[in-house]
Design a protein that fits this description.
five-stranded mixed β-sheet; alpha+beta; 9 helices; single chain; six-stranded antiparallel β-sheet; 13 strands; disordered N terminus
């Protein structure tokens, strides 16, 4: 539906109030391109004082390189006026009073006032949207580059495999050994292909969803900013912050798994007071818990000091407690319990959550696996794989028990030969 305007009603107080309350900029010009009136959004957008633009030529709002061509377009519009959008398929730029350029969207309409032709331009500043679109585009490009690199590795390993097969034909005495190598290479090839496919699939979804959320929130913040609706601005600011935290969590999972796969994590034992560690973790995680959730501690140990890699143990506990919170409802407790059991130290994380279906339990520690009852909850399926690898670095074991819709208990068992007396 086209927008129309009649200058003769500007003096009407009710119309003036509506005119000035519009969230997009409005510029009214005569047939000679002289600015007759603008609303306050235009004055704020371009950095001019009240009524300062009145009487100026419209081209003052354009970068100098566009002014000559724009005069021709303006004269053409005067000859054959019709409601339309300007610059379809092209990026439009406007010029502030201080000389800064910024991207805009412009729609045109026209009317007559006492027999005189007037044109109306509706202007929106799309700077934030352009920045958001560019950020999303860069993220997608990085994902494509990563997928391309994985494909190159697959191709390179396939070529190595072909070379191995050729050698088999001339090295009969080494055939059995070579065949075993070929079999292992094929398994690695399949694993790499599977890893690539799962990574691209999960990353595409897990990255696109929060990025799209960020993009839409920024666009809404732009609108609410013009209206001064700070409550809704705060709401969407929090939504952006939550999406960024989710992206950070995904990246940390992939980086941790990459370091574990490449053997780049060294274990450094040092003394740690376990009750103090548990209390610190409870305080750090309190803000991220759901409403009414609490972390309870019931841990008994004659000697509270234990020698381990504190950084690795913290990562293990953070991951397990985060899962317990994520897969439990509000007002549900999470229990940290355990103690010394013979020559072993056990630490258990128990929740009152949705549990793990029995048919899914044997796959739980596989990369990218997600149980059938959590597909509507955000996640990469890497958390427990990483936890298990971390526990193994500490020469320990990880086990669990779970009942569907009743909760789960994950138990870490570590040797106590490192316990400090």
């Amino acid at each position: 539906m086209s927008k129309s305007f009649n200058l003769s009603v500007v003096s009407n107080e009710a119309f003036r109030e509506v005119f000035q309350s519009m969230t997009e900029g409005i510029v009214v010009i005569n047939e000679e391109g002289e600015i007759l009136v603008v609303n306050h959004v235009v004055e704020q957008m371009f950095g001019y004082e009240k009524d300062e633009l009145n009487g100026m030529t419209l081209e003052i709002l354009l970068p100098e390189r566009y002014r000559g061509g724009h005069i021709k377009h303006r004269l053409g519009f005067n000859k054959a006026p019709s409601p339309r959008r300007m610059g379809i398929g092209r990026d439009l730029a406007a010029l502030k009073k201080n000389g800064d350029e910024f991207p805009v969207e412009i729609s045109l309409s026209y009317s007559e006032a006492k027999g005189d032709f007037i044109a109306i331009a509706f202007i929106s500043d799309i700077s934030l949207r352009k920045k958001s679109e560019q950020a999303l585009k860069q993220s997608e490009e990085q994902l494509i580059v990563y997928a391309s690199e994985l494909e190159k590795k697959v191709q390179a390993r396939t070529e190595d495999l072909n070379v191995t097969i050729e050698k088999l034909e001339s090295e009969v005495t080494e055939r059995k050994k070579a065949e075993e190598e070929v079999r292992k290479s094929l398994i690695r090839e399949r694993e790499l292909n599977d890893l690539k496919s799962k990574f691209v699939s999960i990353a595409s979804h897990e990255f696109r969803t929060p990025l799209s959320s960020v993009l839409s929130s920024i666009a809404l913040i732009e609108q609410y900013k013009l209206k001064g609706d700070f409550e809704k601005i705060d709401k969407h600011t929090q939504r952006v912050r939550s999406s960024v935290n989710h992206l950070t969590s995904i990246l940390n999972d992939f980086l941790s798994l990459g370091k574990l796969e490449e053997g780049k994590i060294d274990v450094e034992h040092q003394s740690v007071n376990l009750p103090t560690l548990f209390e610190d973790i409870r305080e750090e995680m309190r803000p991220s818990l759901k409403d009414g959730q609490q972390i309870l501690i019931d841990f008994k140990l004659d000697n509270n000091n234990f020698a381990t890699d504190v950084r690795i143990l913290r990562n293990i506990l953070f991951n397990l407690i985060s899962n317990a919170s994520k897969y439990s409802d509000v007002k549900r407790n999470i229990l940290i319990s355990g103690g010394k059991n013979g020559q072993s130290l056990t630490i258990s994380i128990q929740d009152e959550g949705i549990g793990i279906p029995e048919r899914d339990q044997k796959y739980l520690f596989e990369r990218f696996f997600r149980a059938s009852n959590v597909l509507n909850i955000q996640g990469t399926g890497l958390g427990l794989t990483i936890v298990k690898r971390y526990v193994e670095l500490l020469n320990g074991t990880l086990s669990f028990t779970s009942e569907h819709n009743k909760g789960s208990v994950f138990t870490i068992t570590l040797p106590v030969s490192k316990t400090l007396e």
